[in-house]
Amino acid sequence: MDLDLGDPADALRARLRELLTELLPDDWAGPFSDDPEVRRVVRSVLDRLADERLLTIDWPVEYGGAAASVWESTVLREEMWAHLEPRGPQYMGLSWVGPTLMAFGTEAQKRTHLPPIAAGRRIWCQGFSEPEAGSDLGSLSLPATADDDGWVINGQKIWTSYAPIADWCFLAARTSHDVRSKNRGVTIFLLPMDRAGISVRPIASMMGEQHLNEVFFDEVRASRADVLGEVDEGWQVIKYVLNHERVGIPRYARDERLLAELAETTRDADPASRADFARALVHARTARLLNHRAIALREQGGLTDRAASGARIASIQLDQEVAGLVLDILGPAGLRPGTDGLLSHAEDVYRYARSATIASGTIEIQRMLVARSLMQEAKQ
Amino acid sequence: MNRAWAPEARDLQSAVRSSLAGLGGVELARAAEEKAAVRVEQLRPALESLGVLELDPLGEEVESSAAVLAVRACGEVVAPYPVTRVLSVPAAMRPGVDALYVVDGCAGFLEHADLFEQAIAVDANGGGVRRAANRSAAVRAPLDPFGAAVDLVDGAGGVAVTESAVLMSYVLDAFWIAGALQTVATDAARYATQRRQFGKAIATFGEIRWRLADIAVAVDGLDEMATFTWFQVRRGRASIADALAVRLAMLEAAGSVLRNAHQVLGAIGLCEEHDLTVVDRHVTPTLIRPFGQGRTVALLVDAIDRFGYGGTFDVAPGDGSIPTI
């Protein structure tokens, strides 16, 4: 039994903190801004990470990666998230679009997409959710109607993060209706966002810029070359994507950083707040351990719904707990955005945390999965 | 990272489970309530025959692993013998000391204290080591089935208990409770698939499933915290803050699991003939002694200030100037 992440992972963490200390300004508030200086910072981080082959550290060597261990990959994700994800939306391409292309893409698709993803120069958006298909993703109905030259797509996606700045869309559309299973008849298309007929409408939200958008498809044409995987078998691709997303964002890492930075302020807080602070530290450690367990099980090929969704439940509940605690302890001073370190973004953290139990599979869905897993175990 | 327990430890855990199942499982706890001698006539010989009571959780890794997994197996049936108190005694102090309790000031009653001639108590606040004297027989109470009145007196012979032994004592409690909560989780899930209301299994209702999910997450979280703290104690990295953290995790997990399980099982779960009631009552002394949630948090706040708290980003120790809650 050895619960340490290992020397290479520890060394990587130290290196990443050096880099981020060097590259991120003191008033770094995250990548979601139109400020040119923010874009310059994001670009400098991406370039530097790419130069040191850290962007694709866990990709196979044949695709320009370093075949790093799962724990080095975990450390990279933890440090990025803890530092307000300075890779910006590129993390999606690196975390799941790239690996999914490796698994399902044609050689031409890999040649087209993997190099720019590996360089941090291609932003993707995920076209999954629809007005009538959110948690029930299998009910997605955006029609892609076949004709002699391919397909014509008409309809709408919603809640599509980064759509206004995305270069490409990873789109799930319905190409046929199979009465036996609604999960059949779905096809994945890789479409450039500048293709004729695609338009984007940002949705103002409490989460801030870029997070929520509508994407409209008006007589958008797609060809066989745009299809990822097999026609009508896109659910297999979606399952692969969701499997990559299952353990999810290492929210606990940012929460642990917030708590560490909050410690000094907490010492002057009232006893009840200090008690809440101590509880949050315990919950953060628990969430981290549950996530590490899920990662280890996935590595061994034994990841269960109980482990994956359980880790996620612990993380997203922690996110909301810590966001509320930080704002509570900072008091009125925390209500307004500032420029003095992580805690000065407490109000942004708080607003974003509202989405934690909704995004990428609601907490209700996660609970359903955990319960089903527990009941199956109990039957055995 | 290697999360696998030593095979020998797993084997012992299986053997303990089999042995306790052969003695009736949770039924053994019921029997011991009716006849306290069951503890020494049936259970202790079984544990002795497997070598459980000789294990040193601060010994070599395989032996230490075996100790905590055996304790977890005992917890699964709320085995009515204080294996955690016996194994908490540092190996160098045995056999002169046969049980170690962590207390918070005056003890009053200690569970199973009637079974030991040479029990000692370590004060959680650094108040030193005392000897358990004037022990009464176990006085049965619903939430304290095996509590025996004791006086804690000076005269422990100048023995000093190492910090690691005290920390491991908290860890052993966490493993014991984790075992008990796993049993509750399995029972609740099984019941939810069998019990029918409104023409269908209650497991089909979202509210029931969400309760089962919260139970599973709580059990798994406690298992991870117990294992992690055990690992840290063994490597000499843990402080009392870590021990109190795992105790808090244990208390919160128990609260969530028991509350949700009772709700899933409804009235049947309140009946003495159902294991949930027995498990609930029998874990309560460990949740309350040496202190419950409020006091645990207060001590944890103080410990974090004195020793800091490790994480992806560490909380540094303070200057020790904060007032105790």
Task: Report a brief summary of the structure.
With 380 residues, chain A is α+β, with helices and mostly antiparallel strands.
SSE run of chain B: HHHHHEEEEEEHEEHHHH
CATH topology of the largest domain in chain B: Butyryl-CoA Dehydrogenase, subunit A, domain 3
Oligomer: heterodimer
Overall CATH architecture of the largest domain in chain B: Up-down Bundle
Q: How many domains in all of chain B?
A: 3
Shape of chain B: globular
Number of strands of chain A: 8
Q: Tell me the strand percentage band of chain B.
A: 5-15%
User: What's the CATH class label of the largest domain in chain B?
Assistant: Mainly Alpha
Q: Radius of gyration of chain A from the CA trace?
A: 21 Å
- What is the CATH class designation of the largest domain in chain A? Mainly Alpha
- The total beta strand count of chain B reads 8
**Overall SS class of chain A:** alpha+beta
| Amount of beta strand of chain A | 5-15%
Task: Give your account of this protein's structure.
The complex is a heterodimer of chains A (380) and B (325). By secondary structure, chain A is of the alpha+beta class. Chain A has 3 domains: 7-88, no CATH class; 125-233, Butyryl-CoA Dehydrogenase, subunit A, domain 2 (Beta Barrel); 247-379, Butyryl-CoA Dehydrogenase, subunit A, domain 3 (Up-down Bundle), CATH 1.20.140.10. Helix content of chain A is 48%, strand content 13%. Chain A is built from 11 helices and 8 strands. In chain A, the strands form 2 sheets. Chain A has a 4-stranded mixed beta sheet. A 4-stranded antiparallel beta sheet of chain A has the order 2-3-7-6, with no helix packed on it. In chain A, helix 8 runs antiparallel to helix 9. The longest helix of chain A has 29 residues, at 271-299. Chain B has 325 residues and is an alpha+beta fold. Chain B folds into 3 domains: 7-84, no CATH class; 91-153, no CATH class; 163-307, Butyryl-CoA Dehydrogenase, subunit A, domain 3, CATH 1.20.140. In chain B, the strands form 3 sheets. A 4-stranded mixed beta sheet of chain B has the order 1-3-4-6. In chain B, helix 1 (7-22) runs parallel beside helix 4 (61-76), helix 2 (26-34) packs across helix 9 and helix 6 (163-194) runs antiparallel to helix 7 (206-234). The model of chain B has no long low-confidence stretch (mean pLDDT 95). At the A-B interface, helix 3, helix 7, helix 8, helix 9 and helix 11 of A face helix 6, helix 7, helix 8 and helix 10 of B.
